Model the fold of this input.
Amino acid sequence: MTLTAFCVLGAVIAPGTALEERILPERALGGIEYHAGRGLRIGDTGLTVGGFATAEAEWLEAENAEAALEGVNFLLFFDPVPYVHLFAEIEAGGFASWESGGGVDSDPGMEVDRLFADASANDRLNVRFGKFLTPIGRWNLAPAEPLVWTTSEPLIVEHVFDETVSGAMLWGSSFPRGGTASYSLYGTFLDPIAPERQAPPAGHSAGAHLEWASLSGWTVGGSYFASEAHGEGAWNHLGGVDALWQPTARLELSAEALFGEGTREEGALWGLYAQAVIETLPTLYAVGRYERFDPPGEGRAIDLFDVGLAWVPVNYLRLKADYRFADHFDDELATPGFRASLSVLF
Amino acid sequence: MAARTFTLVLVLALLAPSFAEERPRLALIVHPARRAELSVEEVAQIYLRTRRFWEDGAPVVPLNLPSGTPLRGRFSKLVLRQTETRLADYWNRRYFYGVLPPATLASTEAIRRYVASDPNAIGYVPVSEVDGSVRVLLHLE
Done:
């Protein structure tokens, strides 16, 4: 028992490669493996446990400086057989926050951010059931701090549609002409699983996302999303396009645009962002983003510019610092100011 | 004179070890029972885990060498056509959905032995290490 515990502890804290080389010749694809940023794989059980953690600080215009240990998100995945994939993301957050002029505050809690099961017939036909990220555009498909280049989200991702859907999705890929064409068709069929307290999700929704990815670095996509608030009867419709271009190993350009009516407020809206990331020195990236958002109703359209740096010394660690400018002050949509974060995948 | 020549040769040998590096041709191998034919692009999709099944519906088991090994770097350049940094970023995003990179084995011999024993596996080894226990799907150069 003690020996087993020691082995597990050793697997957690060791870099992994040496253990892998020791075990694999005797137990191919088996054994306990830990790789930083890729989780702890527990032998041949098909179970892997990993996650990420983030700490943030911000100094916004007309506000006090703040810093917070945002939380730890645990990723659990279980592949009991090749045709079934179970996944959960559980967030333990609110550990500690500090505000200048105030003290340290703590409001710890747990949330189920995602919880789904995938059943696969083949590459072209898979079914997902549970709570999953709404497949609109690019950003919302991987919105975690260690995966994005700025500390703040574009407004079209943050303010327009529900981040997650509780229901079912058909998804798959085919591979014409050396590229990958993917589709997602989804709808809300369940009561919300662990809904956000501040913004209740739509009562019913359905949507589709199509994407083409070439091996030469191009990805383009299109999204459609329809939603109905609880009991209102009227459906809102939202359309969008997105693109990613990686012309060289050191440059990444991406853009998204959304138009229609969102789930949060009534009325037409539109918005877009375009972002460039360039590796200026090895592991150091300069980031620039322009966005425009025209909110529903009487609100005034806003132009935002984000400029910053991201340092990625190893694949599982990301340190970001950026400043957000706005053409006018609107603290309900986006407050200008300096933000920084440190995030680690484990 | 001889001493200076020797010193020059020694310095050149130390400064430019890559000139002496061997760059063996790679063979992409599968189990002899696996009759599929794949293009380089299709192999890339398998190693990026976007293509997860063989045409007969069986799950593909792609095998890699450990990160940082020269042969793996060469394979990534020839097939995936991406740098290790770009690939790490790609796998970070896939990890967010619980999709892990291909399993790694410690040596090309281990890869060949595993492929010979599993009809769903695919791997790469130097051409000189291929024997009758596996079938060559592609030569990579």
